[in-house]
Amino acid sequence: MRELYPGNEGTLVKYLQLALKRAGQDISVDGVFGPRTCEALERITGGNCVAADAQWEMLLPYLRGYVTHTIESGDSLYRIAEKYGTTVEALGRANPGLEADSLRTGTIIVVPYPFPLVPEDVPYSSVLVSWIIEGLQARYPYLATGKIGNSVMGTPISYLKIGNGPTDVAYNASFHANENITTPVLLKFAEQILDAYAKETTYEGVYPEHLFEEFSLYLIPLVNPDGVDLVNGILDSGRFYRQAVRIGNAYPAIPFPDGWKANIEGTDLNLQFPAGWEEAKKIKFAQGYSSPAPRDYVGPTPLSAPESIAMYEFTRSRNFSLILAYHTQGEVIYWRFLDYNPAGSRQIAQYFSSVSGYRVEETPLASGYAGYKDWFIQDYDRPGYTIEAGLGTNPLPMSQFPKIYADNVGILIGGMTQLL
Question: Where are the beta strands (DSSP E) in 83-182?
Answer without folding.
Answer: 108-112, 144-150, 156-162, 167-173
